[in-house]
Write a structure and sequence with these properties.
With 192 residues, this protein is of the alpha+beta class. Helices cover 21% and strands 31% of the residues. It has one domain: tt1808, chain A, CATH 3.90.1570.10. It has a six-stranded mixed sheet. The protein has a three-stranded mixed sheet with strand order 5-4-7.
Length: 192
């Protein structure tokens, strides 16, 4: 096991992380290496980003992928799989976005509890966030949490629905387009 990194502030983390060959998330002042990506997660993220980007052409909103950072506070930075921002300040930043309207995480077995739990808790600190969506590419489950006028997030289970509507940005993505090219590898049958 390697040496633990000392707690850092945001500026120190950004300077350090920009020198690293791999990506790291920064959670409450602590640094965590990100796990490697999976084919089906990458495919779903790519499909969604393309569909949203095509619909947002000419609008004040832009879609970004997993190589861009979102800060939820001065001591927390994540790399969402896909996010959309319509904030003019975000559209001028080169490194850290702070006002996404939509955030989507594509779940994997090793990260889904984190994406549903602590990560969602910290994303809720973003006043700009209107929709947080979790997509499981293996089961094709889609769960969207939409912020209401009261500021609270309500779960909308969109699993099995032909199209996913992102109300906050006026976009709709069909399930067929979202899961295009996604083939889930089944584990070998032990009886064989």
């Amino acid at each position: 096991m390697g040496n633990a990194l000392p707690k850092m502030n945001l500026d120190a983390f950004l300077s350090w992380e920009n020198e690293q060959p791999e990506r790291h998330e920064f959670v409450r002042g602590e640094v965590f290496a990100m796990v490697g990506g999976r084919r089906i997660n990458g495919r779903v993220s790519f499909n969604l980003a393309i569909a949203l980007a095509n619909q947002l052409k000419g609008s004040p909103c832009q879609v970004f992928g997993e190589s861009m950072k979102v800060a939820t506070s001065d001591d927390t930075v994540f790399y969402p799989d896909v996010f959309v921002t319509c904030d003019p300040r975000d559209l001028r930043t080169e490194q850290v976005f702070t006002a996404p309207t939509v955030i989507v995480e594509v779940l994997s077995p090793t990260t889904q509890a984190y994406d549903r739990g602590l990560k969602f808790t910290l994303y809720r600190n973003l006043a700009s966030l209107r929709e947080y969506t979790l997509i499981d590419p293996e089961t094709r489950e889609v769960q969207m949490f939409r912020r209401g006028a009261d500021g609270l997030f309500t779960l909308h289970d969109l699993t099995g629905i032909p199209a996913i509507e992102f109300v906050s940005i006026g976009c709709t993505v069909t399930a067929e387009d979202l899961f295009d090219g996604v083939v889930v590898q089944q584990p070998p049958d032990p009886a064989d």
